[in-house]
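Hi Y.,

Following your request, here is the sequence exactly as I used it, all 164 residues.
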Amino acid sequence: MKCDNTGGKRTIFGPPALPRVLNPSHQRKPRPGRDRVDICPLPNSQYSIGLWPVSLHASKNCMDSVNSETREAVNSPVEFEHCGMPNPETHWWALPSARLRSLKRHFGIQQHKIRPGEEKWVLRDGQTCVLKPPGEMDVQSTVPTRRRPTLQYNVHILDFPKTI
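Below is the corresponding structure, written out as tokens. Let me know if you'd prefer a different format.
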């Protein structure tokens, strides 16, 4: 399922991402109406995925699960598996396929002790993720990369191929 603003399948809350740190801390969820959150529904599910920028400098984003009907953050269903996978277009994020753990689980908090709606994952710009819901087709997404300012120098440019 493609999330774009032409088919009405993506919802953006708040202002567009600004070229500064929007949320300098991983400790809080985005503020309604103030921070940008992209929400994409999961096929054949009552859940959606929310994604918001956290740090421009560190190229970090946070992701959480959202109840599609209420738009409230929820903890990910235990049976959903989150994985990261290599993406040839984002070679700078060259890690092997691996299961992703939420920030709370990473710090040793047991799943049943995470307060409702407080579970989230930290992802890097360009990271490709796969969500594996039980009995359903896997869902793949790639975290957007932020535009960087183009530096201009007074130099001659050698035009080597972009790919080989």
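The beta strands are 11-13, 37-41, 47-55, 60-67, 73-74, 81-85, 98-99, 121-124, 128-132, 139-142.

Thanks again,
Q.
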